[in-house]
Amino acid sequence: MRRSMFQPCGNVSKTMDSKRRFGVAFVVFVAIAVLGLSGRQSLVSAHAEDPPPANGKADPGSRGDKDSAGDKDSAGDKDSAGDKDSAGDKDSAGDKPAGEKSSGEKKQSYDDTERFDLEVREDIFAGFEGDDDALQRGMRKCDDMLKKNPKHAEALVWRGAAKVFISGNAFSKGDRRTGMKMWMEGLEEMNRAKKLEPDNVAVMIPRAAVMISAGRNAPAFMGRPLLEAVRTDFEETYAAQKKVFTTLGEHPQGELRMGLADVYRLLGEPEKSKAQLEAVLKELPDTEYSKRAAKWLKAKPDAKLAHQCIGCHDA
């Protein structure tokens, strides 16, 4: 039986399982970005155009939403990925063979020497599993990076994720003051990271992972803005990967499709959710993803469904 999602506010379990649940939920979606994309592929697309639903028809209402901080999302800005890439190039990462960079693509490459997540993720994941010393060590690494570069988006998003986790622990102990402080700081840092690097998948996925876990269980007035931000991040992640999506492999394709289906369902957009599930059946036949998609398609509208990672961890 798979673990349920961690609840960052409200009735949070006081057991160690709450930490494990959050760790599982977070690892699920980080895997899409840092495991699904190989070092030879760019994490930022010069052509992150509006991602159509799985049926291939453009959805004029899927972009331009505001994120939970109240700022305009990058999808609605003229300088967003839909018009220009983060480096200002006109060339698309998909216009050249994999591994070949255009002249202005330096900021788009994401090889292991540039991956900040490799510096902090083991400590922060260990912290989510209950190792408080490791969590603090990971946060100190984020602090150190931010002292050198206050606008380091990936350090901000990881530190923000850790703060949201800490807020959940504080709420579970009845410390609402600390819980709310960490909650607000964590969300603000993750949203600031997105604003700094709106096209960076390594920012979008950690942010979305935390917010879908929070939004699923939070009261509607708090949860819906979070889920709308998740939808935007997942849609823009798909847009950034669109040209190479079918080459990413079963796991990253399945996780992103199911993540989209999940958030669409939570937001009351059943047709979009259905389109993603049907795409899973078409693109990933005879896999665990297609089996799950088939079950979701047969489920009643009010069924309580939550996607959990397939293949990354034990049940």
Count of strand segments: 0
Q: Write down the overall mean pLDDT.
A: 73
Name the helix and strand elements from N-terminus to C-terminus, one letter apiece.
Answer: HHHHHHHHHH
Proportion of helical residues? 40-55%
Main sheet summary = none
End-to-end Cα distance, whole Å, is: 6 Å
Short note summarizing the structure:
The protein is an all-alpha fold and 315 residues long.
Could you describe the 3D structure shown?
The protein is an all-alpha fold. The protein has ten helices and no strands. It is globular, with a radius of gyration of 18 Å. The N and C termini lie close together (6 Å).
Topology:
Layout: H1 17-35, H2 117-128, H3 132-148, H4 153-172, H5 176-196, H6 201-217, H7 220-241, H8 250-266, H9 270-283, H10 288-298
Helix pairs in contact: 1-2, 1-6, 1-8, 2-3, 2-4, 3-4, 4-5, 4-6, 6-7, 7-8, 8-9, 9-10
How would you describe this structure in keywords?
315 residues; mainly alpha; globular
